[in-house]
Design goal:
A hairpin with a 2-residue loop joins strand 5 and strand 6. The strands form two sheets. The chain has a six-stranded antiparallel sheet. A four-stranded antiparallel sheet has the order 3-8-5-6, with no helix packed on it. The chain is globular. The protein is an alpha+beta fold. It folds into two domains: about 160 residues, Jelly Rolls; about 100 residues, Homeodomain-like (Arc Repressor Mutant, subunit A, Orthogonal Bundle), CATH 1.10.10. The longest helix is centred in the middle third of the chain and has 19 residues. Helix 2 packs antiparallel against helix 3 and helix 8 crosses helix 9. Helix content is about 40%, strand content about 20%.
Length: about 300
């Protein structure tokens, strides 16, 4: 195992990680039977470690691509190797898991929840005693995972959330029924709104106006705004702010970065204004978010 000084929850070079705020699903009542709460990719995650003394309200699926890891649930320990996955159901049982000291795992993982996880897990016969399961290299699941991540990375519009959570079902199916899935190729269309969102993401540290965005497509600001709102359900500036706050959440994972520097990184010179805006969208202050993230492990 690892020593306390070595243990790391996240912060691995090349990692991808999104934790969705609780507020994103409120505007869509009875949204899905299951929905994503956290998603990540940790490459060669040296000293990765999690301890959950009261279990987890989410299901956790971890796909080990390379290297090795382990997990303990209750009083039972399991070892995980390449081309294996673990699917831990929502539970109140004590659990912990982490990377092998000498050959740390590279993992894709998803946390997801729902209105009745006990019924969901019972229907699919997912139990705490299943242990690691072997699977052939699951390229399809990685493609779907990337689609999910890219949708969420582009913001929490209704369409992005719908796509991500519908893809979650497909993602799970590739592990539960691997023999029923074959490779398919496809490319995402890059329309005007998608291009604008990509541009926003490349300018998170700047102050953009609707006029700036509309001018790039030689459209009036009113026409551009109407097109954008029709596609995403919100105004361009509200969407831009949402992307900025998503980036702020990612920066807050690093406790060494001061809140005022997080604000500056996403284009806000006034840290107090940033904190008010963050609290409005996330239902908590940046400091509270950082503390909650630390407690959740």
């Amino acid at each position: 195992m690892t020593t306390p000084l070595q243990k790391r929850r996240d912060g691995f070079e090349g990692q991808k990680l999104i934790s969705l705020p609780n507020t994103v699903y409120r505007s869509i009542p009875q949204y899905h039977h299951i929905y994503i709460t956290h998603i990540g990719y940790f490459p060669k995650a040296a000293y990765h470690y999690r301890e959950r003394k009261k279990g987890c309200v989410d299901n956790i699926l971890i796909y080990c691509l390379r290297g090795k890891g382990w997990y303990i649930i209750g009083d039972k320990q399991y070892h995980v190797g390449p081309n294996q996955f673990i699917h831990i159901p929502a539970t109140t049982q004590y659990m912990r898991y982490g990377a092998d000291d000498k050959d740390p795992w590279t993992i894709y993982w998803v946390h997801f929840s729902g209105e009745d996880m006990a019924a969901f897990n019972n229907m699919l016969r997912i139990t705490e005693k299943d242990g690691p399961q072997n699977i052939a290299f699951n390229e399809k699941s990685i493609q779907i995972w990337e689609n999910i991540y890219q949708s969420l990375e582009m913001g929490y519009s209704k369409d992005n959330l719908m796509n991500a959570n519908l893809c979650l079902h497909y993602f799970l199916a590739t592990f539960l029924y691997p023999d029923k899935h074959t490779e398919q190729a496809g490319n995402a269309a890059q329309d005007l709104v998608t291009e604008s969102i990509l541009f926003m993401r490349s300018r998170l540290g700047e102050k953009l106006t609707v006029e700036d965005l509309a001018m790039r497509h030689q459209l009036s600001h009113s026409h551009f705004s109407n097109l954008f709102r029709k596609a995403t359900g919100m105004s361009p500036i509200d969407y831009f702010i949402q992307l900025k706050i998503q980036k702020a959440c990612q920066l807050l994972y690093d406790a060494s970065i001061k809140v005022k520097d997080v604000a500056m990184a996403i284009g806000y010179d006034d840290p107090y204004y940033f904190s008010r805006l963050f609290k409005k969208l996330m239902d908590m202050s940046p400091e509270q978010y950082r503390l909650l993230r630390k407690k959740q492990g």
